[in-house]
Amino acid sequence: MQTPPDFQAPPPGCPAHDSGQSVPLYGPEFAAAPEAFYSYMRQFGPSAPVELAPGVEAELVTDYTEALRVLQNPGVFARDSRRWRAMNEGQIPADSPVMGMMAYRPNLLFSDGAEHMRLRQAATDSLAMVDSHRLSRHVDQVASYLISQFSAKGRADLVADYAQQVPLLVFNDLFGCTEDIGNRLVFGISGIFDGIDVEKSLEVLTGALVELVELKRTTPGEDITSWMMQHRSALTTEEMIHQLFPMIAAGTEPVQNMISSALRLLLSDDKYADSQHMAGLLVEDALNDVLWNYPPMANYGVHYPVHDVDLAGITLRAGDPVVISYAAANTDPSLGGGGQTMSKRAHLGWGAGPHVCPAKDPATLISLRAIEKLLNTLPDIDLAVPVESLTWRPGPFHRALTSLPARFTPARQPVRAQENQAAPTPAEHAQGKPKAASRWSSFLNWLKA
After folding, report:
1. Is residue 216 in some structural domain?
2. By C-alpha distance, which of 407, 161, 375, 163 is closest to 266?
């Protein structure tokens, strides 16, 4: 294990204190103050030994230049987690909480070389067919609907009531979901996010994706699912299901985190609070600030060296997970100010290299429009609690607010919003069904009113 001289003490509460062990990234201490952990870990060099979950060791790259080296060299650093040595040796518990993000699936996230190019091309070409004007209109509709559900109350949790729901409802439209399939997709994804019967949520989500693919084979439409199925890559039904899963399920998490984190800045940071909320440039600046300093996926892009490799004096063993800390790399002191002095596009918030996020443009547009719509509709919106009291969800990969309580002048509730609010049935309550499960139906009814 790396043991550099003249160590500063680990952050207060860090279990690595005086233990010589890897730095844990899964506890509440890390969630509360990741910057202190990154500062401590930089003493190891360009990367540091970490524990992603109990018993799951990895190397976390915190240096900007070396992060780019890993991201841009797929011949040396592969994404296929079947190379994961500790897992192959039976050292990783099957029920480890990180398996959902690290276990191999035959999709574009975990593929390399020609197979990755084939799968990625189907995704990027299909995403490129999304009309930005249509997307903007739909985000406006979704945002208006969600705001109508809480505008008369004078208060809302901008995470649960807004940021989490925007990408779910927008993606349902982009991927061509029917009312029934859309409800089940929202149920499955919301259950995974909320931790409500995750196994059942995965089962429901997978079943909905199977039906969506079968539907689009017989009745294609103007949507991403249909375009991917018609792509020259000739994806099989099984391949389609595996591609849709990360595009819909994993794609919603970064967008919700980006929206909520940008809203936190706009409602609390003096450099934004003293300006006009509804100015589009201001929102763009806040989103850029988030991508530089609070990336929605703070630590991910897991790679596996195909052979032992030297990373600026540190030996990375073949098959050991190498995780990119987008957050630490973006705030690398050697950058001399990061986003303040470099191009706005130089951040690693979307990754880099052959696996750079294929949906970064629509994700940015969704976030921008959703935030502008909220601030323009509720111009006096403000935080309902001190910004210092906000908490973050524990976990090694994301940077996600637990909640974002807000207050504003109550608006007069539109009649159609009152008539179309979806309330979970007693059976849904008894089953612990997420509140958002019937929101897709409610939204469709709202549009028709």
Report:
1. no
2. 375
For residue 87, what is the domain's CATH number?
1.10.630.10
Q: At residue 121, does pLDDT exceed 90?
A: yes
**b/e 271-302 (16+ beta carbons within 10 angstroms → b):** ebeeeebeeeebbbbbbbbbbbbbbbbbbbbb
Long-range CB pairs of 275-279, under 8 A, 24+ apart, other chains included: 277/375, 277/376, 277/379, 277/381, 278/372, 278/375, 278/376, 278/379
What is the pLDDT at residue 417? 45
Q: What is the pLDDT of residues 386-426, one digit of tens each?
A: 999 999 999 999 999 999 999 999 987 654 544 444 434 33
Q: Which residues contact 441 (CB under 8 A, 6 or more apart)?
A: 179, 182, 183, 422
- d(CA 19, CA 280) in angstroms, rounded, equals 49
Average pLDDT over residues 321-341: 85
**Which of 20-29, 170-179, 241-250, 310-319 reaches the highest mean pLDDT?**
310-319
Pairing of strands 309-311, 322-325: unpaired
240 sits in which H/E element: helix 237-245
CA nearest neighbour of 71 among 325, 255, 242, 254: 325
Burial class (CB within 10 angstroms; exposed 0-12, middle 13-18, buried 19+) of 19: exposed
Residue 92: how many other CB atoms lie within 10 Å: 21
CA angle 84, 303, 32 (to 5 degrees): 100
pLDDT on residue 413:
65
Residue 187: pLDDT band by 50, 70, 90 thresholds?
A: confident
Beta bridge partners of 309: 316
Task: Read off the tokens for 46.
Answer: 């360009």
Residue with tokens 């009649």: 415
- List CB contacts of 424: < 8 A, sequence separation 6 or more: 433, 435, 437, 438
Please indicate, yes or no, if residue 214 is contained in any of the structural domains: no
Number of domains making up the chain: 1
**Which amino acid would we find at residue 407?**
R
Which SS3 state, helix, strand or coil, does residue 401 take? strand
Q: Decide: 43 and 4 in contact? Cβ < 8 Å.
A: yes
Share of the chain above pLDDT 90, in %: 66
Q: State the Cα–Cα distance between residues 390 and 405, nearest whole angstrom.
A: 9
Phi first, then psi, for residue 52 (nearest 5°) are: -80, -30
**What was the pLDDT predicted at 9?**
60
Could you tell me the residue range of the domain that residue 233 belongs to?
A: 23-176+221-413
Residue with tokens 């008369």: 152
Of residues 275 and 324, more confidence is placed in 324
| Residue 281 counted as domain residue | yes
pLDDT of residue 8: 61
Does residue 441 lie in a domain region? no
The CA angle 5-6-11, to the nearest 5 degrees, is: 115
